[in-house]
Design goal:
It catalyses: nicotinate beta-D-ribonucleotide + ATP + H(+) = deamido-NAD(+) + diphosphate. It is built from 9 helices and 7 strands. By secondary structure, it is an alpha/beta fold. A 7-stranded parallel beta sheet has the order 3-2-1-4-5-7-6, with helices on both faces. The protein is globular and about 50 Å long. The N and C termini lie far apart (53 Å). Bound molecules: adenosine-5'-triphosphate (ATP) and nicotinate mononucleotide.
Length: 215
């Protein structure tokens, strides 16, 4: 067993746009898990949904504005630099080769993403590259049967210390402060001519207004 690793994390999402649900969860995870940093990683070409209505460059720019005053949060642009669909396993492979085999790396996922993870490209290799930290939400249940249930049963731990002693391979579920905010709701408010102020950072809203996004 390794002693006292300093874990780092990566939080993938479409971030269309990034909001306080993402940001508050990211900061709480940094503190609960003792992460050196957590990088929000906007996907360029989502493998699983229609192309977002604003560009990957714009979504990454909004993430950069959102994290610029918090040193523990970063924006990771690697999926913008890669051709093709933004498969998470490819990003984890890149991160693992940059960080080296001795670093503790965690992939952060919302529970909605976890439910569908068995449809992801090479999903069973994810835990060979990183731990997975799942953000639990009120009203959400684990699957009781099927491949995701079996996978959770085989790899789940309730011990946060595992992130300081192991480099990859475990699933941790964390209940964080619930914030009922979604990017869909923010886009809908903007399209309806209503304000999403206070659901997302002011510099992100300024960027949306200046670029006339989501109209
Ligand atoms: N309010 C929230 N609290 C905690 N996690 C969240 C919240 N909103 C989204 N997430 C998680 O953040 C990750 C990235 O989310 P995403 O960028 O798709 O945002 P979203 O608000 O769910 O977007 P959309 O409404 O467009 O589906 C997902 O794993 C999702 O589960
Ligand atoms: O790798 C895959 O096959 C894959 C399939 C679906 C989703 N993902 C990733 O899951 C993350 C959350 O996606 P979303 O739709 O909740 O924003 C985001 O980083 C996606 O790139 C990844």
């Amino acid at each position: 067993m390794n002693e006292s690793l300093t874990p780092v994390g990566v939080f993938g999402g479409t971030f269309n746009p990034v909001h306080y649900g993402h940001l508050r969860s990211a900061l709480e995870l940094c503190e609960l898990l003792g992460l050196d940093h957590l990088a929000l990683m906007p996907c360029a070409q989502p493998p699983h949904r229609e192309a977002p209505d604003c560009s990957a460059e714009q979504r990454a720019a909004m993430v950069e504005l959102a994290v610029r005053d918090e040193p523990r949060l970063r924006c990771d642009r690697r999926e913008l630099a890669r051709e093709g669909l933004s498969y998470t396993v490819l990003s984890l492979e890149e991160l693992r080769s940059e960080l080296g085999p001795g670093c503790s790396l965690s992939l952060v996922l919302g529970c909605d993403a976890l439910l569908k993870i068995d449809s992801w490209f090479r999903w069973q290799e994810l835990l060979e590259l990183a731990h997975i930290v799942v953000i639990a939400r009120p009203g959400w249940h684990f699957p009781a049967t099927g491949p995701v249930a079996d996978w959770l049963a085989a790899h789940r731990t309730d011990d946060r210390a595992v992130l300081r002693h192991r480099t990859h391979g475990h699933i941790l579920v964390e209940e964080l402060r619930p914030l009922a905010i979604s990017s869909t709701e923010i886009r809908d408010l903007l399209r309806a001519g209503r304000s999403p102020r206070y659901l997302l950072p002011a510099p992100v809203l300024d960027y949306i207004e200046q670029g006339q996004l989501y109209r």
